[in-house]
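Crash report, auto-generated. Payload:
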Amino acid sequence: MLDNIFNTLDTLEDALAGLSRESEPDAKGAFGSTGKIDMKYNPLELEPSWQKRWEKAGVFKAVEDPSREKYYLLEMFPYPSGKIHIGHVRNYTIGDVVARYKKMCGKNVLHPMGWDAFGMPAENAAIENNTHPAKWTYENIENMKAQLKRMGFSYDWDRELATCDPDYYRWEQLVFLEMYEKGLAYRKKTHVNWCEKCQTVLANEQVEDGCCWRHPEQEVAIKEMNSWFLKITDYAEDMLEYCEKLPGWPDRVLSMQKNWIGKSHGAAIRFPMVGPEEAIEVFTTRQDTLYGATFMCLAPEHPMVQEIIKGSSQEKEVLDFVARTLKMDTFMRTADFTAKEGVFTGRYCLNPMTREEIPIFVANFVLFDYGTGAIMAVPTHDQRDFEFARKYDLKLQVVIKPEDAELIEEDMTEAYVDQGILVNSGPFNGQRNLEALDSIADYLEEQGIGHKTVNYRIRDWGISRQRYWGAPIPMIHCDACGIVPVEKEDLPVVLPLALDMRPNGGSPLPFDPSFTETTCPKCGSKARRETDTMDTFVESSWYFDRYACPDYQDGPLDATRVDYWLPVDQYIGGIEHAILHLLYSRFYTRVLKDLGHIGIKEPFTNLLTQGMVCKATQACSQHGYLFPKEVENDRCTRCGAEVINGNIVKMSKSKKNVVDPQELIDRYGADTVRMFCLFASPPDKDLEWSEQGVEGSHRFLQRIWRLVTDNLEDLKTVKGFDEKTELQEPLKSVHRKTHETIKKVTDDIENRFHFNTAISAVMELVNETNQFLNTGEQRDAAAWAVVRRAVETTIILLSPVVPHITDHLWQLMGHEGFLLNAPWPDYQEEALVTETKLIILQVNGKVRSRIEVAASSSDQEIEAAALADEKVQRHIKGKSVKRVIVVQQKLVNVVV
RNA sequence: GCGAGAGUGGCGGAACUGGUAGACGCGCUGGAUUUAGGAUCCAGUGGGGUAACCUGUAGGGGUUCGAGUCCCCUCUCUCGCACCA
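Recovered output after restart:
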């Protein structure tokens, strides 16, 4: 099939060569309609043919070469869901333009692609369609790979990897064992989110509005169970610090990461128990209010709760409350509309400063995950504590007063949270509360009651998933020896493929004796394999390293190659992955460095987060959201009701406001789709899909196609332009525009990724060239040489954006080879020089006139010309000129 | 509530360090070509006014010879985090 197209094209070119001989010069010379070839722009034939040629020539292959400067460009790899969607198209188009541009600039470019191939959808699809996750996944990969190739992306497919391949995850298992040895991976019993339908633990981010993200009707339960964790908290401080050392990252991503890490300075303070137990430790950032702490609250999960109520008369009441609270999901429990509730434990502890006995409560709003899971409550200066105190009639004690007023506890209607002066605070009375933070912390330390500390919001990364389609955690449970790591030489622990999926959605792994039954590496007795698999974010935390050496068999990473390519110079992906994946990758890179696998800490030097692709929704009162196909003339095709046009929101299957990239490719070709994705808006902003916009992009491609084919003979036969030629207007202007465009496009791509303005600039050049050809008088060889240079520049500058049509036109014009191997053009300063300059004339800051002056004019001459201008004269008549501002070569402002 | 970003024609968006606001594209209007439609080409297109000119970048104030751009306040929208002690 492709071969046929190939042959067709070759024949076409022969035909063209023949035609050129038939053309006859008309009276005006070589211009006019001669050489006009009836040849249509047919992207559907032309594009696959060029894709095949690129592949055959291996133009996208990246080879390590220490003598050349490398450039590693990476787009976030996709989950192989079956088909590419428009978000992929946009993401990968942006990346492809940069990759092609950098290659043309002479960089040794690495531009790989692969598959984030483990994950739940494969298991669900397998159950639904009675197939196997592996089969489903690999079929999807084949489909999507074909689609990506059809888009013409410049990937080095020799480096392709799929994370579900044992050759990939075996190294992840090895790194896990190394982390385990260093204490960076551990197992603990803890409270987790559990979805009954998925039969697995969910990460916090997979819980939406208290329900499972995949089962919006299924409330997430809190379950206490054993899970594996990676010690990301060990690196929290370093990752936070390096947020300041990533100038190539968008501020908003960095601020999200800082937010997520959530460092806060404060103090850990011990409140001694009244009774046999030792003390309860709290974390606070407000040790300045310590004298006002009149009660204590524990999180329901706090282990001391069980301890201190044992045998007391409150026991049942407290246990009921704890059980009731823990049954609520975290979202409901922590929602701001959920009332603050608690129960008295019947026990007291001492405020370490006032030595007063204060009651201990269990409260629903105290988070076990944050700080120590216990808080000192200061109702006078914390709104939550205030509400709680009022509800349970607890003591209030003011310890900060505003500078010019008194606070009376009984009269307070809300907590006083502003700054002020300390009162009722022993030796600290009279100090400003913020200044007392340090002195109180020091005092605590001296007295052995507490110490300064920092607390992080970030928790260790729970990576256990009770799922089948993931990388097995390489551990063994032995009754005698406990948890024993798999021997490194026994890796990989391969995921068994021959088993039946369970209809309830649970993992089949625990029920497969061929997998679970093993022997303990330590004592040799019967033992059981760990059946949890790893969170798929683990795979995506190092795939970019493995691209450097996907075939390496002696370890996770080949140091020589990884050192050459890493770090990623430019990473591009959706903002929706901004926190977790990027945070995990930064953590994992640090781990790999500490384990000696890699030399860098930060994996991504520059990050571009592209905006979402959006489109208006359409709905019908009867049938809900409608696909574009289900709408005709603003009416629902099923019931004829008028459609309701909704907001412009992110494209999603559930809202049915989607366009299928494949349909667009089949209709317009890949180049048009690529061009529209770039032209419609800058990459970091959201893109609003517009069918008319796509048509516009297609029209532009047809316009350059005609510009070349309509004038092919003249363009082809004219001699190359000698840059030293002295040109007259209007030729000079076309030539100047050519160089201005090179400058503008280079700047837009290199420094700003503003492809939309780069394309605009080329459009301007095409417009000017067309205008010259349509209206220009001069039609000799000199003119054609200038036009040829303009047209060739157009083609080269557009080649990263629309690589197929440009390679084709390049060849039609008689060039050999691919534009990807052509050098990116330089502009010449001399070509930008103009003889005259346009000067804007203002009077009192308002534009009144504009004049042309010789470029060589001095400021004095320009000022004189401005004052002599008729319109300026009219506006300053009868007034005295107070001041004249002359902005070099640009503007004159006359102040009267 | 906290943090970040944004607000410019009928629409998507330009205007990089303060210096012609609206590049480029879409749409629309008129004209040419065409049997017609499409495609293509030419002209026009922020609002008001015959014109000179006036007015205009969410609203208000300020700095400046000059503000879409800088500063302060207000409003609206989007995103992230959120009972974080």
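Post-recovery validation: Confidence is low (pLDDT under 50) at residues 1-37 of chain A.
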